[in-house]
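User: My notes are a mess, but here's the protein and magnesium ion's SMILES. Can you give me a structure?
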Amino acid sequence: MHDIVSKTDLRTGMLERRAIMTPEERATAGRSLRDALLSVPEIEMAGTIAAYVSIGTEPDTGSLLFALWKRGAYVLLPRLLPDGDLDWASYEGPDSLTPGPRGCPEPTEPPRGTGAVASADVVLAPAVAIDRTGMRLGRGGGSYDRALARVGPAILTVGLVYDSELVDELPAEPHDQRVRAAATPSGGLVRFG
Ligand SMILES: Nc1ncnc2c1ncn2[C@@H]1O[C@H](COP(=O)(O)OP(=O)(O)OP(=O)(O)O)[C@@H](O)[C@H]1O
Ligand SMILES: [Mg+2]
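Assistant: No problem, the inputs look usable. Here's the predicted complex:
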């Protein structure tokens, strides 16, 4: 219970910091993350990449998705299911997105099932904070805890955060899944373990 309360407080504090960033700061961060991620060897080599469409104050992933798609990667994007789990469908360019159940842009292509994330060579995940062991704090739905649990041990999983969101330590519950790297605008890809 202690961990659950502190996770909620942490999440609120991190999101408040995001809210006071300017649109220019967010856009700059998104460009830096895009450039860093596009040159990661596993991402350059990847046939299939599971990614996500950024929303609100998240670092922008729009130009990253477009660049991955343009260079020929098969990009899978999540579709939120009623129970909070994630289904996956392919990204076919900016016009292939439509608002999902909570207003987040989602792919209009046929869904491939919750297990489709296991076919990705790299998985990019949103995060509110990541610690030095790869422990990840998300929005509190447990969606990515479920999705990341289906990803094989050799697959690069990357959480995208702003610089100050790579922190020393986060609370961990048994269901929490770590990411194997974080990407930050200034630090690029930071691998764990
Ligand atoms: N495999 C699972 N099946 C069902 N519920 C789960 C599973 N994993 C986690 N949850 C539930 O999700 C809820 C939120 O978990 P948590 O606070 O770790 O979210 P989060 O990691 O911040 O969110 P997300 O993974 O969506 O980014 C918890 O109540 C947890 O029990
Ligand atoms: Mg979690």
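The chain has one domain: 2-191.
User: Great, I'll file this with my notes.
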